Each structure stands twice: as structure tokens, then as C-alpha cells.
TrEMBL record, chain A:
Location within or outside the cell: Cytoplasm, Cytoskeleton, Cilium axoneme
Annotated coiled-coil segments of the chain: 550-578
Organism listed in the record: Chloebia gouldiae
KW Coiled coil (keyword) present: yes
Record's protein name: Radial spoke head protein 4 homolog A
Biased composition (Acidic residues): 243-276, 437-451
UniProt key word Cell cycle: no
GO cellular component: radial spoke
UniProtKB/TrEMBL annotation, chain B:
GO biological process: axoneme assembly; cilium movement involved in cell motility; motile cilium assembly
Organism: Chloebia gouldiae
Alphabetical list of PANTHER family matching this protein: MITOCHONDRIAL RIBOSOMAL PROTEIN S18, RADIAL SPOKE HEAD PROTEIN 9 HOMOLOG
Coiled coil residues, start to end: none
A GO CC term assigned to this protein in UniProt: axoneme
Keywords associated with the record: Cell projection, Cilium, Cilium biogenesis/degradation, Cytoplasm, Cytoskeleton, Flagellum
Name of the featured protein: Radial spoke head protein 9 homolog
Length: 578, 240
């Protein structure tokens, strides 16, 4: 622009520098400062300031007169400037031009600076700034709530005792009440080994579990552990719901699946009809995706327990969905840190079927299957059933071996969670059986390639776990060498760093504190994408061959002639013989 | 962390599940002051522990009057008897990088180099030594690497005097909430590598007494600082 944008200091209406206005914590807004007037309630450029029509006309007249006043400095008229701007379309940014101009004009009419034309750009800039500034109260500083206080409020809410009346009645009814695990006792034992969270946090978790039990219909509950994440952590509770509740959810899910299957069948039928009409068709892909392996029923195998997670004690508990074999198979091939948000997408190759909640659930299933141990003999198979049973029960005649023995030999510990097979389930299922019922007989005979996978039986000793190269899978230690009579046997997993177990007499417990990844001595290398598929099978008619050279053709011709000649000679000989 | 402040600081870092048992804590409280007296350190920091298959190493670092000078490192298997570690050499660092897998827990355990790095093994044999690397050397190298990568201090905690030596800033009261969330308020406590590369404009903003180290802003991968925000909200801003 040709005009000089800087205002003449002597002609400035009030205290000099607009820049001072933008410091934090200043006094009342001066009219030349941004934010003045524009954010007062009910004061918008479209409202008429003065309701009275007579007075309004007068105000408009005055405004016009002011605007027409020519600047002494630069001989320009404000209206000329306005026209100039419109013609040049200079103010085509941010919000609506008209709004912006209306705001500028309002500001000028309020403040009535001399030589508004000269400082028009500054005024325009100020008006734009004002759009983005927070409305600050002029007298008091705005109260910023530090996040520590919010967290403290949540923790305080944990301590509120619900239904504080009639405590004695509650105690009597405890027979049918779910058992709250004694988190502090477990924390004490783990602390002897140097594992665990601070006492405060353990207590908050204790109270949060209590809230969970009050809210959900829970039969048994256990603090499973804490998985760390990049932005937030997960606190996980392993829970068995009461029987009625689980069935309701199952039927809902099955209903949805059946509807989906019906729709698919309908779609396929329609497509087939259409295709018969069209001709010719391009070659169909011979790729058949592997059949879906159904997930295990709630209450068995990998879905034996239901898991609830929360980011911090005090936040609401969220139930994790049951895990499917496809998710476990994929989780074995990827390595992703958890972010702390359950709905975050998990972007990997091979593509993970689900979001972070599913990935978390899959890792929890793998960790539980790999590292939940108990002293050998604590659990036994029910006497009536076969050896390969899925259930176990406590052995009332269990006599705990001394701590020294538990530390020395790994044969004193046994897994009590079934191992997950390569298929992704604990109990092997032939996926072919689930396909269309017509072809069942044929396919069962044909496809016996999928061999039944057998994992280890339920209560195998951990001494049979494979180590990683030359390191055993488990490390056993006593918590203290100085006072052996009160020491606790601690077991640390080397395959899943962060998984610990302790045993002291009849008490034992498993816990996990870590990032949720399996130990890998090499760095993780993601799977490579498969090679590009051939577009069509190679037939002799399609494959390229080099054209025969002239020599080859001549040789071939000569060979043919020789063969003919030989055949003729033979005929001649035969004719002669005859 | 500062040896004397250990009991108060331990609960603050217990969010990850790793901590010290009461026995170890008590042992540290008894042995660290004696170590400080014997080696005449001005400051003694408990660095942490490295978990091995058969046991853990507990590491401590002792500092002299200049806090930025190379530190003396000590290790112990039971928090009671401490042994001094030799400073790390480049060869050690290069060899240790190739070793993979857990620590064994035994400082005299020998890793055979022949499988891992045949050239280095050959060189050692030529110079008359056995082609092995001891776990102690691996420990030294690992501690050095960890210190270089993630040894951080908040801005303003240390000041550099005009003579070049570095001291703690007695007037440091911690970072404000706004500052604590920024990655630029934390520095690597090692020899600065990036300071010279800054433009003159950036250097003009720096205060030579407090900004003499590399900040975390330019570390790759970005975004590692989100955990710091969370921790600092709960713990206040102490140099831990």
C-alpha cells in the first residue's frame, strides 16, 4: 500500500504502544486495545447500538461525517480507502470479508482515532488478533486448574463409601458376595522382591477393584497387573462374571453373527443369478481365503476370564471384548507399543483385525497362557474325569514345599492356564467342519492335511518350558538370603519380561508389570508383504519362447527329411521282402 | 538419584513396577554413605539396577567437584559391597553393541567373540589375549550407552561457571507446569553435540550458564516426551 501505515505518535489518542496491551495480566481494556468491546455480551456488529430510531439516524449521520473526514496527513478519505480495498480484494482471508469490515468499522467508530486511514492496517490486524484471544476478565486472573488437582479429585472419589448404613448386615451377607482380592497383601509379598507399585497406587487400585465389584456382577476378581503405554497406562483386572450375565452377552453376539451370515448368503445368491446372465466373464480368482476359525466360547480356553481395564484408578472400568484366534495369530507377528487409548487403531502388517482394545486383550491372553503358574500340586484335575481335562480344582491335601526347594527346582511350579496353540485357540478345532454342510463329508476325507495340534496338558511343570538360546525360561530367586526362614520364592519369566510370581506357604500369586511384549533378543523385524501374485497360471500356449533361428530351422528341416527318407527306405525294404 | 533422597524418591518412580525390596533399600542406605566417604565423592547417585538372569547389578555413580566430568561408576551384587568399574573405551562400546541377550548376572562370565565378531576375535588373538569379552566390560559399555541416550536433567538444575566447571543450581525450585510439558526444558547430561550447529539466532536466546547441553527436542524418534508430562504432573519436578 502506498500510505504510510505507522501512526504519528503525537496524534495517537491514548497511551502509546499497542504492544503493551498484549502482556498478560494488564488492567482494564483501553479502547485502542484488541478485545475491547467486541466480546461484550450482546454486542455484535449486526445489532443496532441505539434502539431509538431518531437517535440512530443521528448516529449514522455522525459516523458518516467522521468517515468522510479527510486525513490531514495523507489527503485520503476513508471512504476512498474502503472502495480501494474492495476493488483490490485485499481482505480475502480468515473470516467473511463483510464481517471483518463491519468489525473494523465498529472499532473505528468507537475509538474515533484521528487519521484512521493511516492506521487502518494496524486496526485490521488488531481486529483479527482479537478473534483468537481468550476472553480474559480484566480484574481477576483466570483460574487454571492444574491436572494434579483433577487426578486428586478422582482419587478422593474412590474413598467414598457407598451405602454406609448397616455395616453389620453387609458382613452377614458376605457368603454370597464376590471375593475382593487382598491387593495390599499381594503387594507386600511382591515388594519383598522389589516388584510392584508404590503403596499409594496399590491402595488406589484396591479401592478401584472394590468399586468394580460393586458395579458389575462379578463372581471372582483378581488384580492381573499393569501394562504401560506411551501416553497412558492400563490397569487390568481379571474377573469371572456370574453365570447369568455371560449368557446374555453371548446370545446378542451370536444373533449378530447369524444375521450377518444370512445377509452374505443372500448377497451371494443374487450375485450368482446376475452372473449367469453376463457373458463372457473374466477368469475368476482361484484364491479361497482360509476358513475363519471360530473363537472359543466365553468361559473356556482363552476366553475363560473377562478382563476389565482402566487407565488410572478412579477412571471407569471398561470391559475388553473376547479374543478371537485370528487376533492372537496376528498379535504373535506384530510388536506395537500401547498408546493408552482403547480405541486407537493398530496399524501393522499383517493387518491386525481390531483396534487397541483387541490387541490388548490378545496380549493379555498370551501372557496369561505363558506365565500364570502355581506351585505344583496346588491344583489337581477333578478325580472323576480323564487326564486331559480343561478344568482344575484346588487340592485340599496340598502341602507346600519349603521355599528353598521352590527356588532350586523349577519342577515345583506348574502352569495352570492352558497353552495357546498355533491356531490361536486352546482346544484345537478343524476349521473345515464349519463350512457348508453339503460338502462336509467330502472335505473331511480329502483334507486331512491340517493335523490336529496338541499343546501341553493343563498342569505341566514349568521346567519343561523351552528356554531362549541358552537362557532358561524362568529365573527363580528367594527374596532374601539373609533371613531364609521368612523369605519368599520369586519367579521371574525371561520370555515375558515383567511377569512375576511369588509363593510363600499356601499363598501364591501372579502379576504382570511391563510393556506387554515378549522377549526378543533380536530387534523386531516386521513381516514382509507376500510376493505379488501371478495374474494367470502359466500355460504352454502363453509362455514366451524365443523364435527358432535360421540354423535351427534348417537343422529341423534336415532332420525331418532324414526321418522321411528313413521311413521310405524301410517301406522299400519291406516291399522288397514281400 | 541422590543417595540421601532415595527413600523419598523411590515411590515416585515406582509406576513401572520395578523397585527395590526393603532389604535392598536398607542396605543402600547403609552402604552408600560409606562409599561416598571412602572414595571421597562429592555426590553419589544411585543409578539403578540391571537385571540379569541369575541376579541383578546395582549401579552407583560418584561425582567430583565438576559434575560434568567423567563419572566413576561402581557396581554391586548385593547393595553392600561396591566395586569400581573402569571407564568405558570405544572398543568396549563397539563390541558390546553386538552382544545380544540377557545379562547373566555374573561379572566374570565370558562371552566368546568368535561367534559374534570374527574379526575382533582375530585381533584379540593376535595381540595375545583370548577372544572373549567379559560381562563386566559389557556392563560398563551398557551403562555408558544408557547414560548417553537417556541421562536427562531439567533445564536450570545445573549451571556452568565461567571457569567451565558445572555445579548444581541451589536456586532451582523445579520446573513450572507449563515448562515441564515441553521437551525443550530437558537436557541430555552428556557432552553436547548439537550446540555448535544451532543458528546464531537460536544461540542468542540461550543463556550460557544454563543452556550448555543438548535439549531433547531434536531427538529421534519424536514424541518420547509424553510420558514425562504425566509423571511430572504427579511427582513435581525433581531431578530424579
Amino acid at each position: 500500500m502506498d500510505q504510510s501505515p505507522e501512526p504519528d505518535p503525537s496524534e495517537e489518542p491514548q497511551s502509546a504502544h499497542p504492544q503493551d496491551a498484549y502482556e498478560v495480566g494488564h488492567g482494564p481494556y483501553q479502547p485502542h486495545e484488541p478485545g475491547y468491546g467486541l466480546d461484550q455480551p450482546g454486542y455484535s456488529p449486526y445489532e443496532d447500538e441505539i434502539p431509538d430510531p431518531q437517535a440512530r439516524m443521528l448516529a449514522i449521520k455522525n459516523a458518516k461525517a467522521y468517515l468522510l473526514k479527510t486525513s490531514t496527513k495523507s489527503g485520503l478519505n476513508f471512504i476512498m480507502f474502503y472502495d480501494f480495498c474492495i476493488v483490490n480484494q485485499q481482505y480475502l482471508h480468515l473470516y467473511d470479508r463483510y464481517d471483518h469490515f463491519a468489525n473494523i468499522l465498529t472499532k473505528i467508530l468507537d475509538e474515533q482515532p484521528a487519521n484512521a486511514v493511516d492506521i487502518i492496517e494496524n486496526i485490521s490486524k488488531d481486529v483479527k488478533w482479537a478473534q483468537f484471544r481468550k476472553k480474559m476478565d480484566t480484574l481477576r486472573d483466570e483460574h487454571v486448574v492444574p491436572p494434579t488437582l483433577e487426578a486428586a479429585e478422582k482419587y478422593k472419589a474412590l474413598f467414598v463409601k457407598e451405602g454406609g448404613e448397616d455395616e453389620h448386615e453387609e458382613l452377614e451377607e458376605e457368603m454370597g458376595q464376590p471375593s475382593l482380592p487382598n491387593v495390599m497383601e499381594t503387594a507386600f509379598y511382591f515388594e519383598q522382591a522389589g516388584i510392584g507399585l508404590s503403596k499409594d497406587e496399590s491402595y488406589y487400585i484396591f479401592l478401584a477393584l472394590k468399586n468394580l465389584i460393586n458395579v458389575q456382577p462379578i463372581q471372582t476378581c483378581r488384580f492381573w497387573g499393569k501394562i504401560l503405554g506411551l501416553e497412558m497406562n492400563y490397569i487390568i483386572a481379571e474377573v469371572q462374571l456370574q453365570e447369568g450375565e455371560e449368557e446374555e452377552e453371548e446370545t446378542e453376539e451370536e444373533g449378530e453373527e447369524i444375521i450377518a451370515e444370512d445377509q452374505n448368503e443372500m448377497d451371494e445368491a443374487e450375485e450368482e443369478d446376475e452372473e449367469k446372465e453376463k457373458e463372457p466373464e473374466p477368469p475368476k480368482s482361484t484364491y479361497k481365503p482360509p476358513p475363519d476359525i471360530p473363537k472359543e466360547a466365553n468361559g473356556t480356553g482363552t476366553n475363560k476370564y473377562v478382563y476389565f481395564v482402566c487407565n488410572e484408578p478412579g477412571k471407569p472400568w471398561v470391559k475388553l471384548p473376547p479374543v478371537t484366534p485370528a487376533q492372537i495369530v496376528c498379535a504373535r507377528q506384530i510388536k506395537k507399543f500401547f498408546t493408552g487409548h482403547l480405541d486407537a487403531p493398530v496399524v501393522t502388517f499383517p493387518p491386525f483385525p481390531g483396534n487397541e482394545a483387541n490387541y490388548l486383550r490378545a496380549q493379555i491372553a498370551r501372557i496369561s497362557a505363558g506365565t500364570h503358574v502355581s506351585p505344583t500340586g496346588f491344583y489337581q484335575f477333578p478325580v472323576d474325569e480323564e487326564e486331559e481335562a480343561d478344568t482344575y480344582e484346588e487340592n485340599p491335601e496340598f502341602e507346600p514345599p519349603p521355599v528353598a526347594e521352590m527356588v532350586e527346582s523349577l519342577a515345583t511350579w506348574a502352569h495352570h492356564v492352558k497353552e495357546i496353540l498355533k491356531q490361536g485357540r486352546c482346544v484345537w478345532i478343524n476349521p473345515v467342519q464349519k463350512s457348508e454342510e453339503n460338502e462336509e463329508d467330502e472335505e473331511e476325507e480329502e483334507e486331512e492335511e491340517q493335523q490336529e495340534e496338541r499343546g501341553q496338558a493343563l498342569l505341566t511343570l514349568i521346567s519343561e518350558d523351552e528356554g531362549i538360546k541358552n537362557i532358561p525360561a524362568w529365573t527363580a530367586q528367594a527374596s532374601t538370603d539373609l533371613i531364609p526362614e521368612y523369605s519368599v520364592a520369586i519367579l521371574q519369566s525371561n520370555r515375558w519380561p515383567g511377569a512375576y510370581a511369588f509363593a510363600s506357604g499356601r499363598k501364591f500369586e501372579n502379576i504382570y508389570f511391563g510393556w506387554g511384549h515378549k522377549y526378543n533378543s533380536e530387534n523386531h523385524t516386521p513381516a514382509l508383504p507376500p510376493p505379488a501374485e501371478a495374474e494367470f497360471p502359466s500355460d504352454p500356449g502363453i509362455t514366451e519362447r524365443a523364435d527358432p533361428t535360421v540354423e535351427e530351422e534348417m537343422a529341423f528341416k534336415a532332420a525331418q527329411e532324414e526321418a522321411l527318407a528313413a521311413a521310405e527306405e524301410e517301406e522299400n525294404e519291406e516291399a522288397e521282402d514281400d | 538419584m541422590e543417595a540421601l533422597a532415595l527413600p523419598a524418591a523411590l515411590p515416585l518412580v515406582a509406576g513401572g513396577g520395578a523397585g527395590l525390596s526393603p532389604e535392598r533399600r536398607a542396605a543402600l542406605g547403609a552402604s552408600l554413605p560409606l562409599v561416598q566417604r571412602d572414595y571421597r565423592f562429592e555426590r553419589l547417585w544411585f543409578w539403578g539396577c540391571i537385571q540379569g538372569v541369575r541376579g541383578a547389578y546395582y549401579i552407583a555413580e560418584g561425582l567430583g567437584p565438576d559434575r560434568a566430568a567423567p563419572r566413576s561408576r561402581l557396581y554391586s551384587l548385593n547393595c553392600l559391597d561396591w566395586s569400581l568399574l573402569t571407564p568405558a573405551t570405544k572398543e568396549m562400546l563397539a563390541l558390546a553393541e553386538q552382544l545380544k541377550g540377557h545379562f547373566q548376572g555374573d561379572p566374570s562370565f565370558e562371552y566368546s567373540l568368535a561367534e559374534i565378531d570374527a574379526e575382533a576375535a582375530a585381533r584379540l588373538v593376535q595381540s595375545g589375549k583370548e577372544p572373549v569379552i567379559k560381562e563386566e566390560a559389557r556392563l560398563i559399555a551398557t551403562i555408558e550407552q544408557i547414560d548417553r541416550a537417556v541421562g536427562i536433567v531439567p533445564r536450570g538444575a545445573f549451571v556452568k561457571t565461567p571457569l567451565g566447571s558445572v555445579h548444581e543450581n541451589r536456586y532451582f525450585e523445579g520446573l513450572s507446569l507449563v515448562e515441564a510439558k515441553k521437551l525443550s526444558s530437558y537436557f541430555h547430561f552428556t557432552e553436547p553435540a548439537n550446540l555448535k550447529n544451532k543458528t546464531l539466532l537460536e544461540k542468542a536466546d540461550l543463556d550460557p550458564s544454563t543452556d550448555f547441553l543438548d535439549s531433547l527436542e531434536h531427538d529421534i524418534p519424536r514424541g518420547k516426551g509424553s510420558k514425562i508430562k504425566r509423571c511430572n504432573e504427579r511427582e513435581g519436578n525433581r531431578e530424579v
